[in-house]
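Exercise 7b. C-alpha cells:
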C-alpha cells in the first residue's frame, strides 16, 4: 500500500514589535488601525497612529469610518485603498480600520482574528490594535493568538493552498511597547500551540494513525529538548496496558503509548526529583468508527479529530519551555484506532487495565475512557504526580449540556478547578465546572467486572466517574472537550473544522509562577 504524503502546509504569520507608529513602518502593504465607539452615542475614536497616517496620506479616516457606517464593534473592518502609497512608504496599498469594541483582551483577540482574515495573501501589515488595551502584555498575547488562529489553514489540494496567511505582522505600538522582551515570544508560543493542536487534529486518518502520531511526538521531543519514550504493541502487551490494546486490536495499525518528559531549563536531574510533577494525559484515538457498536455514517465524518486531547498534550509539551514552566511535566498520549474487523472488541468482553482493574465493555464506542484509564493508572502508580489532568473529546453528553463554546471541567480539588477555569478565561478557552456527583457511581457497577464502560445516566458525569476510579488520591481534573472539539462556522479566531481547543489554557496555567500551590493531595 502506498503511504499517504501530506503536502507542505501554510505557516503562521511572523510577528515583530516596534516602538514606531504604524505609518512609520516602511515596506508594509497594509496598515491596520483600531476604531472604538466613543463615549457619546454615534461618536467614533480612532486609535494610535491615525493622526500621523492622515497627515502622511492626506486621508480623513474618521470620515471613511462614518461613510462605511462603522460602529467600532469588534471585528468590523473597513478598507481604504492607497494605490500610490505615501511619501514615507510607497509600498502601502491599503489602510484597514478595525473595530475593537471596548478594547478588552477578548476584543483585541477577536479583532486580531478579523484582521487576519482581511489581510490573507498580503506580504506584511503594521498595526497598533493592541495599543488600545490597558494591559499591554495581555493585549499583545490576545492579538497574536487571534491573528495566528484566524490565519489557520489546512489543505490537501494538488494545486496548493487556496489562501496564504499574511507573511509578517509588525505591532507598531509606539510608547506602549513592553520592556519585557519575552512578551512577544510567549505570545507567539501560545498561538503556535493552538495552531499545532488544530493542525494535528485536522490531518486525515489515512495518514494519521498511532505510529504517525508517535513520529510527531518524537519530532516534537527533538525540537523542544524533551525526553521521549514510545510503547509499541509488544511493549504494551508486556506491561499490561489492556485498555489501549483492546481498543486498538481491530486496526491494521497497532496502538502506541507516547510519553514526553519536560524539566525546566537549568534544573539538574537531582534537583528535578524534588520539583512538583504535573502529568497530562490526552486521548489519542486517531479515528473512531465506534467499533462493533458502529457509529452512524454522519457521526463518523469528524472522527479524525478524536485524538484532539492527544494533540493538546503534544502541543502543550512542545511549548512549555517557551512559557518558562517552573515544574516537571510528563505528557502521556494513549493512541489507538477504534476500527472494525474480526478481531474487534465485542460488547460483553472484559479487559484488564494497567494495574489490574477490569472493565466490562458493553459499548465499544465508549472507547476513549478505556485508553485513558490505562494511562491514568500508570501515571498515578509510577510517576509520583502532584497533579494529573486529562484532556479528551469524550462524550456527546457534554455538548448537550454546554453547547459548542465552553469545555467541560471535572475536578477533585477546588483550587485546581479554579486555576484551570481562570486560565481558560484568560486565554480564551473557557471551561465550565460540572459535578462528580457520587450518587451516580452505582451506575458503573458490572455483574462480572470492576466497572461497566457504558451504563446509563448522565453521560459526561458517568464517564468522568469511570475515570476517577483510576486516579487514586491524586488531585485530578478531567477536561471533556467534545463540546468544543468541532467548529461548524467562522467564529472569531475559530475557523471551521477541528478546534484543537486546550493548549492555550494549559500553558497559561503551567506558565504561571507556581501552578500547583495550594492544591492538596
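Sequence design result:
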Amino acid at each position: 500500500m502506498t503511504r499517504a504524503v501530506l503536502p507542505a502546509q501554510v505557516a503562521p504569520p511572523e510577528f515583530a514589535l516596534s516602538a514606531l507608529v504604524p505609518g512609520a513602518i516602511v515596506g508594509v502593504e497594509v496598515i491596520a488601525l483600531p476604531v472604538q465607539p466613543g463615549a457619546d452615542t454615534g461618536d467614533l475614536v480612532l486609535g494610535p497612529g491615525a493622526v500621523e497616517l492622515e497627515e502622511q496620506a492626506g486621508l480623513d479616516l474618521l470620515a471613511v469610518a462614518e461613510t462605511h457606517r462603522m460602529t467600532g464593534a469588534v471585528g468590523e473592518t473597513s478598507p481604504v485603498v492607497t494605490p500610490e502609497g505615501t511619501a514615507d512608504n510607497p509600498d502601502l496599498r491599503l489602510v484597514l480600520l478595525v473595530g475593537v469594541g471596548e478594547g478588552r483582551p477578548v476584543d483585541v483577540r477577536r479583532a486580531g482574528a478579523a484582521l487576519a482574515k482581511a489581510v490573507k495573501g498580503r506580504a506584511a501589515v503594521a498595526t497598533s490594535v493592541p495599543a488600545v488595551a490597558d494591559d499591554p502584555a495581555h493585549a499583545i498575547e490576545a492579538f497574536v493568538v487571534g491573528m495566528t488562529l484566524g490565519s489557520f489553514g489546512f489543505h490537501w489540494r494538488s494545486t496548493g493552498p487556496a489562501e496564504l496567511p499574511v507573511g509578517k505582522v509588525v505591532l507598531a505600538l509606539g510608547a506602549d511597547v513592553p520592556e519585557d522582551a519575552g512578551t512577544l515570544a510567549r505570545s507567539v508560543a501560545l498561538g503556535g500551540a493552538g495552531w499545532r493542536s488544530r493542525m494535528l487534529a485536522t490531518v486525515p486518518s489515512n495518514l494519521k494513525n498511532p505510529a504517525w502520531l508517535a513520529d510527531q511526538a518524537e519530532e516534537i521531543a527533538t525540537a523542544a529538548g524533551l525526553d521521549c519514550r514510545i510503547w509499541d504493541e509488544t511493549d504494551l502487551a508486556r506491561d499490561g496496558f489492556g485498555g489501549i490494546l483492546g481498543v486498538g486490536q481491530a486496526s491494521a495499525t497497532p496502538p502506541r503509548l507516547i510519553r514526553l518528559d519536560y524539566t525546566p531549563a537549568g534544573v539538574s536531574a537531582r534537583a528535578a526529583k524534588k520539583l512538583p510533577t504535573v502529568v497530562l494525559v490526552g486521548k489519542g484515538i486517531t479515528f473512531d468508527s465506534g467499533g462493533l457498536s458502529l457509529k452512524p455514517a454522519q457521526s463518523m465524518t469528524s472522527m479524525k479529530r478524536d485524538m484532539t486531547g492527544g494533540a493538546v498534550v503534544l502541543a502543550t509539551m512542545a511549548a512549555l519551555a517557551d512559557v518558562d514552566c517552573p515544574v516537571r511535566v510528563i505528557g502521556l498520549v494513549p493512541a489507538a484506532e477504534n476500527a472494525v474487523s474480526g478481531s474487534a472488541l465485542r460488547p460483553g468482553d472484559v479487559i484488564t487495565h494497567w494495574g489490574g482493574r477490569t472493565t466490562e465493555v458493553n459499548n465499544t464506542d465508549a472507547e476513549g475512557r478505556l485508553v485513558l484509564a490505562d494511562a491514568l493508572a500508570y501515571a498515578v502508580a509510577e510517576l509520583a504526580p502532584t497533579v494529573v489532568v486529562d484532556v479528551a473529546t469524550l462524550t456527546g453528553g457534554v455538548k448537550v449540556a454546554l453547547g459548542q463554546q465552553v469545555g467541560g471541567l471535572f475536578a477533585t480539588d477546588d483550587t485546581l478547578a479554579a486555576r484551570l477555569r481562570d486560565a481558560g478565561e484568560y486565554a480564551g478557552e473557557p471551561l465550565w465546572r460540572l459535578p462528580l456527583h457520587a450518587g451516580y457511581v452505582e451506575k458503573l457497577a458490572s455483574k462480572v467486572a470492576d466497572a461497566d464502560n457504558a451504563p446509563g445516566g448522565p453521560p459526561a458525569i458517568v464517564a468522568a466517574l469511570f475515570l476517577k476510579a483510576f486516579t487514586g488520591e491524586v488531585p485530578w481534573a478531567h477536561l471533556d472537550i467534545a463540546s468544543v472539539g468541532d467548529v461548524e462556522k467562522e467564529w472569531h479566531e475559530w475557523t471551521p473544522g477541528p478546534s484543537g481547543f486546550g493548549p492555550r489554557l494549559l500553558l497559561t496555567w503551567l506558565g504561571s509562577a507556581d501552578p500547583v500551590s495550594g492544591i492538596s493531595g
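Instructor comment: Residues 34 and 472 are 51 Å apart (CA to CA). Residues 189-510 form a domain with the Aminopeptidase fold (CATH 3.40.630.10).
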